[in-house]
């Protein structure tokens, strides 16, 4: 929870000169006792432990029994309600509801209103989540290999004063829609509900891994380094240093007025030598394009970018071990750079910035 002087600072005019655009929710991190058990449960009932457009990482925590639920008296006006933190969107709500009913999953009745159909379920961790199918969506059957969830529709955060938090988002420059909610470029909404639990946030602690103090959501933005510097200069509470997580991108943590964290993130794709094909006469075979979503050649990388596949639609390509590559394969790397630049000329919206990095990188042994 922020101290009083921190909240006074947040309430001050911290409007940024260059506004931040939240492109999309890139990933969710959710607390569980056993990530393998929960992942298998979702694979079995929802066809995937994630969604079609957004990754979901089930993080095993030291403290057992954690959920991302919180108590509010704003969802049902004037009445205490155990609130869910995420609304997932689907296009197969009827068959999914029937499947969960048959599996004896704890469900609330399906509801219909002008926005569409929805229901709420609890998973084995006791996390509550809402499933929603927007009005006008043609209902589909569940399909093998296709996640039941299209993606995240809405995030709900516990806050002390929703108007203070809304002003904070406005000062950042995040778009506010007609209903008064912050919204990403992809359309995911962010709601702020008054918490009945003082100091409550959606943050949690894993006790293991590179990042142990977790935010619930990773938000994709552009120009991450510039944004980080601007936020620090304007007095926002941010993580001191940017983390370079190679194929997982660049990120830092930003705190809202109540201390809820957001992982601010900019994806990058790493270009590495393909150690299995260094002798190939085709330069394309000698390089791998990889990040946390894929490990492919250059042509498939371009195809994924045009398809808006997970892990694409970003601006940064990082060539690792550049000096060694330049010495051992100058013609190949020249052709690669020319091809990337030609793709950017053909599709200006996705003209990549090429960064050159020395050293093989953390994951070079996998190439």
Summary keywords:
Glyas_Fos-R_dOase_dom, VOC_core, six-stranded mixed β-sheet, 2,3-Dihydroxybiphenyl 1,2-Dioxygenase, domain 1, 367 residues, Glyas_Bleomycin-R_OHBP_Dase, VOC domain-containing protein, alpha/beta
Describe, in short, the structure shown.
Helix content is 23%, strand content 31%. The chain has 8 helices and 22 strands.
Strand content: 25-35%
| SSE string | HEHEEEEHEEEEHEEEEEHEEEEEEHEHHE
How many beta-strand elements?
22
Adjacency order of strands in the biggest sheet = 6-7-8-5-9-11-10
Number of domains: 2
Q: Low-confidence parts, pLDDT < 50 over ≥5 residues?
A: 1-13, 363-367
Q: Structural class, from helix and strand content? A: alpha/beta
Structural Rg: 22 Å
Average residue pLDDT: 89
CATH homologous superfamily caption of the largest domain: 2,3-Dihydroxybiphenyl 1,2-Dioxygenase, domain 1
What do we call the CATH topology of the largest domain? 2,3-Dihydroxybiphenyl 1,2-Dioxygenase, domain 1
Instruction: Quickly name the level 1 CATH class of the largest domain.
Output: Alpha Beta
Q: How many angstroms separate the termini? A: 44 Å
What is the number of helical segments per DSSP (H or I, 4+ residues)? Answer: 8
Q: What is the helix content?
A: 10-25%
What's the CATH architecture of the largest domain? Roll
**Based on CA inertia axes, which overall geometry fits?**
globular
The largest β sheet comes out as:
7 strands, mixed
InterPro entries: Glyas_Bleomycin-R_OHBP_Dase (IPR029068), Glyas_Fos-R_dOase_dom (IPR004360), VOC_core (IPR037523)
Domain VOC: 21-134, 151-267
Protein name: VOC domain-containing protein
Pfam families: Glyoxalase
């Amino acid at each position: 929870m922020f101290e009083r002087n921190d909240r006074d600072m947040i309430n001050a005019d911290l409007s940024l000169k260059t506004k931040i655009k939240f492109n999309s929710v890139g990933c969710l991190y959710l607390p569980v006792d056993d990530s393998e058990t929960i992942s298998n449960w979702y694979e079995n009932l929802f066809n995937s432990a994630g969604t079609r457009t957004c990754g979901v990482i089930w993080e095993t925590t030291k403290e057992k029994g954690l959920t991302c639920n919180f108590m509010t008296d704003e969802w049902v006006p004037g009445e205490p309600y155990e609130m869910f933190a995420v609304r997932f969107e689907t296009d197969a709500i009827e068959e999914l509801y029937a499947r969960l009913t048959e599996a004896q999953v704890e469900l609330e009745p399906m509801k219909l209103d002008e926005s569409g159909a929805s229901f709420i379920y609890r998973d084995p961790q006791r996390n509550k989540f809402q499933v929603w199918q927007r009005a006008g969506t043609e209902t589909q059957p569940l399909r093998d290999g296709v996640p039941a969830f299209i993606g995240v529709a809405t995030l709900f955060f516990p806050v002390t004063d929703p108007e203070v938090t809304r002003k904070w988002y406005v000062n950042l420059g995040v778009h506010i829609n007609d209903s008064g909610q912050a919204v990403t470029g992809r359309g995911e909404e962010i709601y702020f509900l008054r918490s009945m639990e003082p100091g409550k946030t959606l943050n949690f602690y894993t006790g293991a891994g590179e990042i142990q103090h977790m935010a619930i959501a990773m938000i994709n933005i552009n120009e991450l380094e510039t944004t980080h510097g601007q936020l620090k200069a304007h007095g926002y509470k941010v993580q001191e240093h940017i983390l370079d997580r190679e194929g997982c991108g660049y990120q830092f943590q930003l705190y809202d007025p109540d201390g809820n964290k957001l992982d601010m993130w900019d994806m990058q794709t790493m270009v590495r030598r393909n150690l299995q094909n260094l002798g190939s006469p085709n330069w394309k075979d000698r390089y791998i394009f990889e990040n946390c979503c894929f490990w492919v050649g250059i042509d498939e990388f371009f195809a994924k970018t045009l398809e808006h596949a997970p892990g694409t639609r970003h601006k940064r390509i990082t060539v690792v071990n550049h000096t060694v590559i330049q010495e051992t394969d100058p013609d190949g790397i020249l052709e690669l750079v020319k091809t990337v630049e030609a793709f950017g000329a053909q599709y200006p919206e996705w003209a990549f910035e090429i960064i050159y990095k020395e050293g093989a990188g953390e994951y070079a042994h996998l190439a």
